[in-house]
C-alpha cells in the first residue's frame, strides 16, 4: 500500500509544480466535473487523505480551511507536513490491524483500516484524472499518470 | 491488490451500465483529455489490463481491435471474459514473485510484477476520473468513485 501513497505524493508534487504555469484566475476558476478548481482539488486531496489517516490512528480530526487566496507554495507545504506524519505511521503500522473497525467523526458508518487505505488511494488517483482533462481543455500537456518508470521501489 | 481489481471491475460495470443512457453519437464522440471517447476508454482500459496481466504470466499478447461500431454489450462481454482469466491468476499468484522482472513485447524496459500490478490499477482509476468530467459536461451525474461502502471484502 505504501507504494501507492508514494506514487500519489510524487504525482501530486509534479502537478503542483505544473500549476505554476497557470494564472491565478485559471487556478481558482470553477470547472465542470471534479471538485471546483485546480487549487481546491489539491486542498481536497490533502484534506481527505490526512483526515482518514489520522482517523485510522484514532487521532482527532484537524479541520483544514480553504481560502481562495491560498498559494501553490502553501499547498505544497501543507502536503509535505501531512506526508511526514502519515508516512511515519504507514511505514510502521503493518497489516495486523487491517480488518480492525475504524469509526470517524464525519461518517455514520464504520469501515476497516484496509478499506480506508484503498479509499484514500483511489480518491486521489480519481481526482488527478479529472485534472488531466482540465489540462487538455487548456491545451496543456498533463503530468504523466504512469506508475511504471517512476522507480518507486 | 485483488481488492483494487475488484473495485475497478465493479466501477467499470457501473459505468458500462451508465453509458446505456447515451446516444451512439455521444458514445463515440471524441472529447478533450482522456482517450478519445467514452467507448474507446473502456476498450483501452480492458486492453491495457488484459495485456499486462497476460504479460506477467509470460502469455502471448492478444491484440484486441477497436471499431467504432462496437456495442456496450460487446465491451461488457470482453471485460467479463478477460476478468475470468485474470481473476483466476490473481487469486493464485501470491506475493512470492512480486519482484521478479517481467519483459513484454510492447515495451523496451523491464518491470517487476508488483510495479505492473500498481500500474494497471492506477491506469483504470485515472481514466475513470476523466469519464467523470465528461459526464458532468453532459450535465449527468457520474458513477461514484468511492471505495468505502462498496463491500468489496
TrEMBL record, chains A, B:
<protein>
    <submittedName>
        <fullName>Uncharacterized damage-inducible protein DinB (Forms a four-helix bundle)</fullName>
    </submittedName>
</protein>
<comment type="similarity">
    <text>Belongs to the DinB family.</text>
</comment>
<dbReference type="GO" id="GO:0046872">
    <property type="term" value="F:metal ion binding"/>
</dbReference>
<dbReference type="InterPro" id="IPR034660">
    <property type="entry name" value="DinB/YfiT-like"/>
</dbReference>
<dbReference type="InterPro" id="IPR007837">
    <property type="entry name" value="DinB"/>
</dbReference>
<feature type="binding site">
    <location>
        <position position="123"/>
    </location>
    <ligand>
        <name>a divalent metal cation</name>
    </ligand>
</feature>
<keyword id="KW-0479">Metal-binding</keyword>
<dbReference type="Pfam" id="PF05163">
    <property type="entry name" value="DinB"/>
</dbReference>
<feature type="binding site">
    <location>
        <position position="127"/>
    </location>
    <ligand>
        <name>a divalent metal cation</name>
    </ligand>
</feature>
<feature type="binding site">
    <location>
        <position position="44"/>
    </location>
    <ligand>
        <name>a divalent metal cation</name>
    </ligand>
</feature>
